[in-house]
Every structure is written in structure tokens, then in C-alpha cells.
Amino acid sequence: MAATVKVQHAKTHLSALLARVEAGEEIVIARGDRQVARLVPVNPRAPRPLGFVSYRLPDTFFEPLDDNELAAWER
């Protein structure tokens, strides 16, 4: 069952109400005795896969640099 709060309470405690909504609770905001709005959690987005580009480093990437290349990087 959803918790009901008055508009003034919602205005002054919005951060706390949002924390409750993030935890899965539903909050109904009422003006007087009339319900006017609902705060509900948004469906979380599916996690995006890491490494969406297929690429593999060549084995030579980890080989030591020769002296000329190393000197160019140290300038």
C-alpha cells in the first residue's frame, strides 16, 4: 500500500521521499483529501555491456620499445 503525504510535506521533504521511492516504495501526494500525484520508482535501465567494440590488442603491444621509439616518448 502506498504512503500518502500532503503537498506541503512533499515540498519540504522531497529528498527523503525520493530516497524512499528509490528503495521501492510508492508515495501518493494529496491536496487536502484528494490524491493528485504518485511518486513511483522508474524502471532501471538494463546495464550496458562493457567493451561494446570488439578489439584485441596485438601481442606485440606488450613487447619492450626499441631505443629509438623509447627516446621519442621520453622527450
From TrEMBL:
Highest taxon listed in the record's lineage: Bacteria
InterPro entries listed in its UniProt record: Antitoxin_Phd/YefM, phD-YefM_TA_antitoxins, YefM-like_sf
Purpose of the protein: Antitoxin component of a type II toxin-antitoxin (TA) system.
Sequence similarity: Belongs to the phD/YefM antitoxin family.
Protein name: Antitoxin
Protein species of origin: Nakamurella aerolata
